[in-house]
Amino acid sequence: PQAKLIFSMSLLLGTTITISSNHWMMAWTGLEVNTLAILPLISKSHHPRAIEASTKYFLIQATASTLLLFSSASNAWFTGQWDITQLTHPVSCTLLTTAISMKLGLVPFHFWFPEILQGSSLMTSLLLATIMKFPPTILLLLTSPSLNPTLLSVMAIASAALGGWMGLNQTQIRKIMAFSSISHLGWMIIILIYSPKLTLITFYIYSLTTAAIFFTLNSTNTLKLSTLMSMWSKIPTLAAALMLTLLSLAGLPPLTGFLPKWLIIQELTKQELTTMATTIALLSLLGLFFYLRLAYCATITLPPNSTNHMKQWHTNKSIDMLTSILITLSTMLLPLSPTILTIP
């Protein structure tokens, strides 16, 4: 427990250092603290897949941090500025975009993310998909006026396309959630230049909905589609709530997940980027397909008699308070959207 507390506190400390820093060296330090804090949490199960995942994660994050430090150092060399908001040199901007894309798992640097989520436990996967992506996103927000809009738009549309396409033939739920994360990152990045506030709203709502799904899966110990099929016969209420949360993550009205997609398409249209808005909206239909498949498996399908997975007869029938609150917020927050949008 003491070790876990230390790692959790280090995770919060690293995130806080990065999002509150004004100097590139402090931001880099925060990212490194974050990486070193999450590694023991990934590898704590001592399974070969977990050790492999933690090694991959360390190598990718170390490479991305080196690139980030190199981009900030080259910017300081050319401009004499170590301030995060003063990133003005074009080469440094491109290097920074590459480094942050590697840290986030944006296309074309996405290959590591599904594999690492597959090798981690459900709660560690939740941390990797939400909290660990917050500091790099904040760095992108702070440097957004200097970044290349064309490069970001291409990466965003590629992420939305690949996240939807690759998730279609998966049976492992953690991999499906990883491709879902890549797809949502595309939505966040496409609007970054035009409305950074919208990127943050999208990130918050995505994190809320993903947390609700992971907590639900963790309470029923569900890791793949074949196990998901038996959820309805054990906890029907939770299965119905999971279906609504999945549809919210897909962005269907009148659920909470519709809000960011609606606002992003509206903002892109205001900026006269109708083609881009249409493209990313059509690409989200790919993701909708596998969310519907998950919802279908959770609520409508009953398992056949000859299943090859272990039956889980003795399950915890009670739903804890945190899961209930997360599910409620991730499905019923849309009527509060005027209040959310007026927050400065």
TrEMBL record:
Its EC number is 7.1.1.2. Core subunit of the mitochondrial membrane respiratory chain NADH dehydrogenase (Complex I) which catalyzes electron transfer from NADH through the respiratory chain, using ubiquinone as an electron acceptor. Essential for the catalytic activity and assembly of complex I. It is an enzyme of class 7 (translocase). It is a multi-pass membrane protein. GO terms for biological process: mitochondrial electron transport, NADH to ubiquinone. GO terms for molecular function: NADH dehydrogenase (ubiquinone) activity. It holds the Pfam family Proton_antipo_M. The chain crosses the membrane at residues 57-77, 89-113, 150-169, 176-194, 200-217, 238-259, 279-302, 322-343. It is found in: Mitochondrion inner membrane. This is NADH-ubiquinone oxidoreductase chain 2. It comes from Myiarchus tyrannulus. InterPro entries: Complex_I_Subunit_2 (IPR050175), NADH_DH_su2_C (IPR010933), NADH_UbQ_OxRdtase_chain2 (IPR003917), ND/Mrp_TM (IPR001750). Keywords: Electron transport, Membrane, Mitochondrion, Mitochondrion inner membrane, NAD, Respiratory chain, Translocase, Transmembrane, Transmembrane helix, Transport, Ubiquinone. Belongs to the complex I subunit 2 family. The keyword ATP-binding does not apply. The keyword Transit peptide does not apply. It catalyses: a ubiquinone + NADH + 5 H(+)(in) = a ubiquinol + NAD(+) + 4 H(+)(out). Residues 21-286 form the NADH:quinone oxidoreductase/Mrp antiporter transmembrane domain. Residues 288-341 form the NADH dehydrogenase subunit 2 C-terminal domain. GO terms for cellular component: mitochondrial inner membrane. Its main location: mitochondrion.
